[in-house]
Specification:
Elements lengths: L10 E5 L4 H12 L3 E5 L15 E3 L6 H8 L4 E4 L13 H22 L3 E5 L23 H20 L2 E7 L2 E2 L12 H10 L5 E3 L5 E2 L2 E2 H10 L10 E4 L6 E2 H12 L6 E3 L8 E2 L4 H7 L7 H15 L19 H4 L4
Parallel strand pairs: 1-2, 1-4, 2-3, 4-5, 5-6, 6-11, 7-10, 8-13, 9-14
Antiparallel strand pairs: 9-12
């Protein structure tokens, strides 16, 4: 199998091309002179995100026959489509599993059938669970919620199918991406986007637990550049590679404070009980990415948030859209969702 050659025009297929990550990745490949095709069902993205230069197929990833038709002729596939609802997956595991494991299985079937050269799977740092931080790629996954379980199972399916059907694969582990085009009216995910949307409406951010959960946040452009390299670098095949900064490990409280400072908002957060299975400390080592991808960041957390806030302000704050019903409603289900408090 030949690696993707960055100097030549290649056919790149992106699942979830109308989504936050998928659309930015499509832009990056188009700007580099590649032919880009993609699919989406608009469950989490916007039609306006799809680049005009890309060939678009409105088909669900779980539709194997539709995916085979859409993917025909592709050299490399980026599987970015997913309902990235880590916390919600505890209460809606069936829907989340379908969007992760089943969609990955179908995308792999299509990729194998049409004869792609490489399959790049976008996993999640949730795979590491309660491992000691910073997370490194050689750690045994310890998924703590159904979303993470589905991601780890999908990784194993990628490796297995690639081995059987003779195509290359890479497991990318992006984490906590922020930036323009991120859906900010979704009450179930994207903490920075939720905080920004609420504060721009004059509402206090809602924080689970004591707010001392710590994360690293990746600005979108700092993510797509190394992610693009996974499509054609020789030294990444069969590897798991974290993509994200490891130098700004901040609390959710700090995140809220930074956003409030940028907006000039009088901050007084509303604290709610912890969400079940939420990992307290989660950050990844970027050493491997620095070694094999020459990874480095160009944006600080504050700079990334400033660009994101500008984009949301331009579009205008929105009411939150409770578009998913919790499959499980018990005393553990966050009141923020059952009573639509966000």
């Amino acid at each position: 199998m030949k690696p993707i050659d960055t100097s030549a025009s290649e056919d790149v297929f992106i699942t979830g091309i109308a989504g936050f990550l998928g659309s930015h990745l499509a832009d990056t490949f188009i700007e580099a002179g590649h032919t880009v095709t993609g699919n989406d069902n608009f469950s989490g993205g916007y039609r306006s995100n799809v680049p005009e230069e890309a060939e678009f197929h409105e088909v669900d990833c779980t539709n194997v026959w539709g995916m085979k038709e859409a993917m025909a002729g592709a050299d490399v596939v980026y599987h970015t489509a997913a309902l990235a609802y880590e916390g919600l997956s505890v209460f809606s595991p069936a829907r989340v599993n379908k969007s992760i494991y089943q969609s990955t299985s179908a995308a792999l079937s299509a990729a194998a059938d049409v004869g792609v050269d490489r399959f790049v799977f976008c996993s999640s740092m949730s795979r590491y669970g309660e491992n000691e931080t910073p997370f490194t790629e050689d750690m045994e996954p310890q998924p703590q919620d159904p979303y993470a379980v589905s991601k780890v199972a999908a990784e194993e399916m990628v490796e297995l199918m690639a081995d059987i059907h003779g195509f290359e694969y890479v497991i990318a582990v992006p984490h906590n991406i922020i930036g323009p085009r991120q859906r900010y009216d979704d009450p179930f995910r994207n903490v920075a986007a939720i905080f920004i949307n609420r504060m721009l409406q004059g509402e206090q951010p809602i924080i689970y637990g004591d707010g001392e959960q710590k994360r690293c946040f990746t600005f979108i452009q700092d993510n797509v550049r190394p992610l693009q390299k996974l499509g054609y670098y020789d030294n990444v095949t069969g590897e798991v590679i974290n993509i994200g900064p490891d130098d700004e490990f901040v609390s959710i409280n700090h995140l809220a404070e930074t956003i409030a400072d940028i907006i000039d908002f009088d901050l007084d957060p509303i604290y709610k009980p912890d969400r079940p299975q939420e990992v307290k400390l989660a950050n990844c080592s970027a050493d491997k990415a620095r070694d094999v991808l020459d990874y480095e960041t160009e944006y600080t957390l504050r700079e990334g948030l400033e660009e994101m806030i500008d984009w949301v302000e331009h579009r205008g704050a929105k009411e939150f859209d409770y578009h998913i019903d919790c499959e499980i409603v018990t005393e553990q289900t966050p009141e923020t969702w059952t009573s639509e408090l966000i």
